[in-house]
Design goal:
alpha+beta, Nuclear Transport Factor 2, Chain: A, six-stranded mixed beta sheet
C-alpha cells in the first residue's frame, strides 16, 4: 500500500490537472478501471460506476459552465486507501445551465470529499458540497443582484 504522503501527492496533482486545468485526457493513469460516485447528492452521477469514457464525460460536462474553476484545498488527510480533502471552489459562470443563462459572475462553493484508492489509483469518491449555495447565487445573479 502506498504511503499516505504518496496518496496525498497523487490526489493534489489529479485535482490541479484534471479538475482545475480541465486536462481530462491525462486522468487515465490516475484512475482505476472504474470510478464509483458512492455519495454525491445533487450530482447527476451520484451512485454511478463510470468507466474512463464516463468519467471524462463527467469532467467535461461539470466544467462546461465554469471553465476557469479552481479548487483551493484547505485540508488534506490521508489514511490507508483514502484521502480526505476540504475545499473551497470558485469559478466564473460562463456557460448556460438549465434555468440560468451565463451571468459572468463568480460563483463560490465549499465541500468535503473522501477519495478512495486501490494502490495508487483513484477508484471513487464520497462527497458533500454546498450545491444549495450555488443555486442561490445563480438565482441572485439571474435576478440582477451581485
Amino acid at each position: 500500500m502506498p504511503s499516505p504522503d504518496t496518496l496525498k501527492s497523487i490526489l493534489t496533482r489529479f485535482i490541479a490537472t484534471v479538475w482545475d486545468d480541465g486536462d481530462v485526457d491525462t486522468a487515465r493513469p490516475w484512475l482505476g478501471d472504474t470510478y464509483t460516485v458512492h455519495h454525491d447528492p445533487g450530482d447527476p452521477w451520484d451512485g454511478m460506476v463510470l468507466d474512463f469514457a464516463g468519467f471524462k464525460d463527467r469532467v467535461i460536462r461539470s466544467r462546461a459552465a465554469f471553465p476557469d474553476q479552481r479548487f483551493d484545498l484547505q485540508h488534506v488527510f490521508a489514511d490507508q486507501g483514502a484521502v480526505s480533502v476540504t475545499w473551497l471552489w470558485a469559478a466564473t459562470h460562463r456557460g448556460d445551465l438549465p434555468g440560468f443563462r451565463a451571468s459572468g459572475q463568480t460563483i463560490r462553493m465549499s465541500g468535503a470529499t473522501v477519495y478512495l484508492f486501490e494502490g495508487e489509483r483513484i477508484t471513487g469518491h464520497w462527497q458533500i458540497a454546498d450545491r444549495l449555495g450555488v443555486y442561490q447565487q445563480l438565482q441572485r445573479h439571474a435576478a440582477g443582484g451581485q
